[in-house]
Inverse folding.
């Protein structure tokens, strides 16, 4: 019932131990190719791409800083929330269509499908890293220099968000081959999700009884904890961090299970 | 007798074709209470054969006989529904020339991309760049984006990368006729060099000349089964004679 090969097909379905290292050259080339294609291979193209969230930030700041004038750190909170949200939205959208977009490699070549999914979020990840540098510079310039402890915690929250995005990308990419309007459904979910996550408003304006439900949406704890670590200079409770870790692991595991189950026959649905 | 490098044992593959195709969530929801029929399309049925190390095996058959599906099973692209495929060596599938070319990138970036997709290490691709471009006769156009290439130029580049990426077994699907007579002769020479180095080859083609010239042995597929197996010349003769008979 199986194809038994020197490079075993079943083992190639999910990231095998050491798979990232064994396929490092291919992973690097796919990310580099996506980057060059999207930004025309120039730094100018990349800077141009950063203008989208930057212009969003300026517009939202212009409008909502009046509404939340009593909050002295609103602008900083907004920029942190927007950049993390931008990574979540872009990463999940690219991941969802990854197998369909690179379907020719699935049907005509022998590429482990998980590589196509994981590398598809490379561009969003590069943008997140650049934005992190921008945010830190911005914080230092506004006399809110983050502590080393805060920066390490922020890196941990970003890793949790990456795990959420990878889990979603793995699961949704194989489902998208069977349900070709899943991307449209996700676009609608993202629009609603933008307002469920406290990107443009402080979570405190909502009654506390709703907070638990809002925290179920993974970007909410990441954004709130990142703001606490970077802007307010304090760390959330260990219980809160454990909840985020569990949330991220759940997304990753569920995504990997769906992917492992459906990806061996993905080429038949492209 | 040595163990075959590739063993195909009673392999079957079928596809279920629905009377109404539903590809979206909306279509699935709207059709929740409407039954639909699924017709079974048996593409391969109990196919068994082996390929020895260093051998060149040809696969022939009418359109729809299951040749390309068989190659996809051998390459690990599809999983069989029944039986087993055991490959005791690395396979380089070449199921379509120029697959994965990115038209927005130049030849060098595309060689790096496709070379790594085919399993080559980046340092090896960089080392062989000049040789690949020279084989494709495209040195002057190395920095030209692929979207400006003619189809012949893209195919030549595809061949040049593929012939560099060959590991133990080369799997070729209907792609042994590229470029002008000079380039064709160069490809054929390169193929013979690879064979002389001990590489195994599996070739699917409708062209009796290709199978008779480049294969030691061949299979004739019909209706998803192996109907004849033997020396390449005998199989091509049988194939030509089946073409003159009505399908049935």
């Amino acid at each position: 019932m199986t194809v038994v090969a020197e490079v075993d097909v079943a083992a190639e379905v999910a990231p095998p131990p050491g798979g990232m290292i064994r396929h490092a050259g291919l992973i690097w080339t796919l990310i580099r190719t996506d980057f060059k294609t999207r930004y025309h291979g120039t730094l100018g193209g990349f800077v141009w791409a950063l203008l989208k969230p930057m212009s969003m930030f300026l517009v939202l700041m212009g409008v909502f800083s009046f509404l939340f004038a009593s909050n002295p750190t609103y602008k900083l909170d907004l920029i942190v929330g927007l950049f993390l949200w931008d990574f979540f939205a872009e990463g999940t959208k690219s991941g969802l269509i990854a197998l369909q977009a690179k379907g020719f490699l699935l049907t005509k070549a022998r590429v482990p499908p998980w590589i196509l999914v994981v590398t598809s979020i490379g561009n969003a990840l590069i943008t997140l890293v650049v934005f992190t540098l921008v945010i830190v510079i911005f914080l230092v310039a506004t006399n809110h220099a983050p502590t080393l402890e805060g920066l390490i915690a922020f890196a941990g929250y970003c890793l949790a968000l990456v795990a959420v995005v990878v889990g979603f990308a793995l699961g949704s990419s194989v489902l998208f081959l069977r349900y070709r309007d899943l991307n449209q459904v996700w676009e609608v979910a993202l629009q609603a999700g933008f307002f469920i996550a406290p990107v443009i408003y402080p979570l405190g304006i909502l009654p506390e009884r709703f907070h638990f439900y809002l925290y179920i949406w993974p970007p909410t704890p990441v954004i709130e904890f990142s703001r606490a670590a970077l802007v307010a200079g304090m760390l959330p409770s260990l219980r809160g961090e454990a909840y985020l870790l569990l949330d991220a692991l759940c997304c990753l595991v569920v995504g990997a299970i769906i992917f492992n189950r459906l990806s061996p026959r993905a080429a038949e649905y492209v | 007798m040595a163990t075959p490098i590739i063993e195909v044992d009673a392999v079957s593959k079928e596809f279920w074709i629905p009377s109404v195709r539903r590809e979206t969530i909306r279509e699935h929801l709207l059709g929740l209470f409407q039954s639909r029929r699924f017709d079974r399309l048996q593409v391969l049925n109990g196919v068994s054969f082996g390929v020895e190390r260093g051998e060149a095996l040809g696969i022939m058959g009418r359109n729809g006989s299951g040749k390309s599906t068989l190659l996809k099973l051998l390459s690990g692209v599809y999983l069989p529904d029944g039986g087993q495929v055991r490959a005791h060596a690395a396979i380089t599938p070449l199921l379509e020339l120029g697959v994965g070319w990115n038209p927005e990138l130049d030849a060098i970036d595309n060689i790096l991309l496709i070379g790594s997709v085919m399993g080559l290490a980046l340092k090896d691709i960089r080392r062989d760049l000049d040789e690949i471009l020279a084989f494709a006769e495209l040195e002057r156009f190395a920095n030209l984006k692929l979207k400006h290439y003619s189809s012949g130029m893209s195919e030549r580049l595809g061949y040049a990368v593929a012939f560099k990426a060959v590991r133990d077994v080369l799997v070729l699907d209907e792609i042994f006729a590229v470029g002008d007579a000079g380039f064709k002769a160069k490809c054929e020479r390169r193929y013979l060099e690879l064979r002389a180095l001990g590489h195994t080859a599996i070739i699917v083609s409708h062209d009796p000349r290709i199978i008779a010239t480049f294969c030691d042995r061949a299979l004739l597929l019909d209706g998803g089964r192996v109907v004849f197996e033997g020396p390449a010349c005998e199989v091509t003769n049988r194939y030509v004679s089946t073409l003159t008979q009505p399908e049935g």
